[in-house]
Amino acid sequence: MGRKILGGTREVNTRPASWKWWICGLLLLASAINYMDRQTLANAATRITTEFNLKQEQYGNLEFAFGWAFAAGSIFFGILADKFPLRWLYPVVLLLWSMAGFATGLVNSYEGLLYCRGFLGLFEAGHWPCAVKVTQQLLDPKDRSMGNSVLQSGTSIGAIITPQIMKVLMTDELSTWRYAFMAIGAIGLLWITLWFSLVKRGDLVVKAPASTAGTATATGRPFWHLVFSRKMLVVLFVIAMINTGWQILRAWLPKFMIEGRGYTENAMLNFNSAFYIATDVGCIGAGALTLWLCRKKFSVTGSRKITFFICAAFSALTLVVPLLPRGAMLLFVLLLAGAGALGVFPIYHAFTQDISPHHQGKVTGVAGIAAWAIGPPLQKGYGWLIDQTGSFDLGLAIAGCLPLIAFFGLWIFWKEEKSTI
User: Fold this and answer.
1) How many Cα atoms sit within 13 Å of 172 on the Cβ side?
2) 3-class secondary structure for the chain?
3) Which has the closest alpha carbon to 345: 88, 149, 190?
4) Which pTM was predicted?
5) pLDDT in tens, 272-307
6) Residue 207: how many CB atoms within 10 A of its CB?
């Protein structure tokens, strides 16, 4: 393995250019496992609410517990990501959330479900500060949207695979949903083995900031000075909007399909895989479009904003869902909306990486609090609304419009920096 000296004092490993994209692929797998553990609940939602005799609001409480624990875990692991070596922190985090997912298959009470979802949210939150910091350290600013697209697309791949695993493991016996939680929870051990085989000591170090347009310039400022900067406030607003919209769509789509439009469980599971194929296309497409625009001489910031708007417009197609009965047009609209709703995330992550290379973990962590601050109460409130009205439609329509609201905040308040070279 080659070596090089940084600043005359620090010796680190060198790697071929392709290595960083292999690591992005490993981050994709971590995101996939993250969402496999998360989506087991949504795919088994009707079975679980039946077995435990839950109201829709009580199901919303499970997402409520997950969301607020995720918010707490975001800042906790964000601080740790800036303090401890990612080579060790990242696999520990993945092991802990995998254990929480596995334990869900063993619970025998609603209270047990709440505790397991809370611990799952707490530990899953650590994935994003670790993963986003890795792409920040590995990639140049023009490549980060693409790298983040690879990272984010893993969530879709996990959600594509999960329904098919559950189709195999779930039989007509109601309680067989438990096997899926345990099987998926065990998969994390394989990832940990791959991680240590590819990432060696000294591979992940903080890169010196480049003085290019759209990148961070205030790297030496204390973190708490950055929290109230304009860019950080924009990031907090954007993630609060896009994450709330996405999490409502993610958590309630299976129940909407079965209970709101009368699809069978098998048809729902098949469509859920198709839905996440569409979201994966949205993720990779967002990164590819941003990279293409940069190569066409658009600025880094301008390329990101254009892509964000296109994705947000697709997401807002949920406005027509209340007008559509069960059928091909409804499914097509949901596919487009899903692609847009998840496609905005790689662009958002790229903007967070412009704030500070030295505080990326804490930036992601604080943003995680904003991401989940309003979502959990809305999940609970959405369940209450369904109990009162018997309809899922209005909530889905509103949720899809939130990324478009986020775009206007980004467009107006995020100002592009001029190059100092």
Assistant:
1) 0
2) CCEEEECCCEEEECCCCCHHHHHHHHHHHHHHHHHHHHHHHHHCHHHHHHHCCCCHHHHHHHHHHHHHHHHHHHHHHHHHHHHCCHHHHHHHHHHHHHHHHHHHCCCCCHHHHHHHHHHHHHHHCCHHHHHHHHHHHHCCHHHHHHHHHHHHHHHHHHHHHHHHHHHHHCCCCHHHHHHHHHHHHHCHHHHHHHHHHHCCCCCCCCCCCCCCCCCCCCCCCCHHHHHCCHHHHHHHHHHHHHHHHHHHHHHHHHHHHHHHCCCCHHHHHHHHHHHHHHHHHHHHHHHHHHHHHHHCCCCHHHHHHHHHHHHHHHHHHHHHHHHCCCCHHHHHHHHHHHHHHHHHHHHHHHHHCCCCCCCHHHHHHHHHHHHHHCHHHHHHHHHHHHHHHCCCHHHHHHHHHHHHHHHHHHHHHCCCCCCCC
3) 149
4) 0.72
5) 889 989 998 999 999 999 999 999 989 999 999 999
6) 13
- Pair 301, 416: CB distance under 8 Å: yes
Tokens found for residue 303: 């390329």
Residue 226: phi and psi, rounded to 5, are -80, -25
Written as one letter, the residue type at 216 is A
Structure tokens at 143: 């490549």
CB 186 within 8 A of CB 105: no
Q: How many CB atoms lie within 10 A of CB 88?
A: 13
CB-based contact 331:257 (threshold 8 Å): no
Question: Model confidence over 18-38: pLDDT tens digits?
Answer: 888 899 999 999 999 998 988
Q: Is the distance from CB of 43 to CB of 355 less than 8 angstroms?
A: no
| Amino acid sitting at position 103 | A
Residue type at position 394: L
Pairing type for strands 3-6 and 10-13 reads antiparallel
Q: In this structure, what are the phi and psi dihedrals at residue 298, rounded to the nearest 5 degrees?
A: -70, 155
CA distance 62 to 47: 14
* Alpha-carbon span 162 to 182, nearest angstrom: 12
Closest CA to 225 of 352, 137, 356: 356
Distance of CA 112 to the CA centre of its chain: 25
Asked which of 154-158, 198-202, 210-214, 229-233 is least confident by mean pLDDT, the reply is: 210-214
Mention every residue, 6+ apart, whose C-beta is less than 8 A from residue 297: none
Indicate the length of the chain as a whole number. 421
Q: What are phi and psi of 326, to 5 degrees?
A: -55, 135
Torsion sign (Cα): 36, 38, 42, 46: positive
